[in-house]
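User: Design a sequence. Structure:
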């Protein structure tokens, strides 16, 4: 760290945390959130969802839409109070195996997901994972972090420019952005992915979907995506570590799943 950066470290830390609230995630992790109000975050999710529907082809396949709707409804019934309002869904005609969920109660699924999610339990693993991001406030956390990082880099560039000239300011901004992405933003994204695995697997088990099928889903995903970037530049955990963790957690969730089935939560979505 350069002398100006060392001197500025307390100021940068304060800038990063200014305006944030501290909360606890569903797995007990400390989070910094609150850079924007919850209502605005929901509005952003709604706008992004509307834009996705306007820019992409939405499937009119009634059977597949009902299938997705059934899985989403079963999972969202198990959400904590305040999250259970009806979630909107859209099935996009897109061969990429993907799905997403957004603040404001929105779920998007690509038709390509059916190549890897080969039964209702595997589809539930995908959807529950994505909804897990929302209820764990990961979008809020990421926006708060990114806004804080932008503030830090802006101030650092200004100080470097004042001390060493315009060239130093540009270099600080460029290198700082790369450092933040590799050492701060992406590792936290992996942390969020692992947390969404935990929350999603719990949700699917409580909804009556077999939590062991999350392992099968990710095995299918690995087979469908043989090439991947190095773990330190990936937003997802190492695949083999992920499989081991999902498998171990599934065994502990079997009583939850069996209890759900015994209570009549036995989805028949397709």
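Assistant: Done.
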């Amino acid at each position: 760290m350069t002398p100006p950066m060392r001197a500025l470290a307390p100021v940068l830390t304060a800038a990063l945390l200014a305006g944030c609230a501290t909360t606890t995630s569903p797995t007990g992790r400390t989070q910094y959130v609150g850079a924007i109000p919850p209502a605005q975050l929901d509005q952003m999710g709604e706008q992004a969802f509307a834009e996705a529907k306007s820019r992409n082809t939405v499937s009119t396949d009634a059977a597949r839409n009902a299938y997705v709707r059934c899985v989403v409804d079963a999972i969202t019934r198990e959400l904590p109070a305040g999250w259970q309002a009806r979630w909107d869904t859209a099935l996009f005609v897109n061969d990429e195996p993907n799905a997403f969920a957004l603040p404001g109660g929105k779920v998007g699924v690509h038709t390509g997901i059916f190549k890897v999610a080969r039964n209702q339990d595997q589809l539930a693993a995908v959807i529950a994972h994505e909804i897990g991001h929302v209820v764990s406030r990961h979008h809020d956390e990421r926006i708060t972090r990114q806004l804080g990082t932008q503030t830090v880099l802006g101030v650092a560039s200004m100080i470097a420019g004042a001390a060493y000239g315009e060239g130093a300011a540009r270099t600080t901004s460029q290198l700082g952005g790369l450092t933040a992405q590799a050492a701060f933003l992406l590792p936290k994204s992996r942390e969020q992915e692992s947390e969404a695995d935990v929350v999603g697997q719990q949700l699917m088990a409580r909804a009556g979907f077999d939590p062991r099928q999350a392992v099968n889903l990710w095995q299918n995903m690995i087979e469908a995506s043989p090439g991947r970037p190095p773990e330190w530049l990936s937003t997802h955990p190492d695949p083999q570590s992920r499989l081991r963790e999902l498998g171990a957690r599934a065994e502990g969730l079997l009583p939850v799943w069996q209890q759900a089935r015994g209570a009549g939560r036995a989805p028949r979505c397709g």
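The helical segments are 3-17, 38-55, 62-76, 120-135, 138-164, 166-206, 213-224, 239-262. Strands lie at 21-24, 30-33, 88-92, 99-102, 106-110.
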